[in-house]
Amino acid sequence: xxTRRRKVxxxxxxxxxxxxxxxxxxxxxxxxxxxxxxxxxxxPDGRARELADAAYYETRLPLPGRSGR
Length: 69
Description:
The chain is an all-alpha fold. It is built from two helices and no strands. It starts with a helix and ends in a 12-residue tail after the last helix.
């Protein structure tokens, strides 16, 4: 009796696991793209914008694999 119950529970668990794995393969909600950027993000003040410009936007990084040459 106990062995039969264990088999049933094992099969049910494996079945649920298989269904969960198969659900991950369904491409639900992947048919859209991000909207285009039409304006800059809101900045709390002008100084934050200046810092971002100086730290990130005007920095030119070397191409990958070209550092140290």
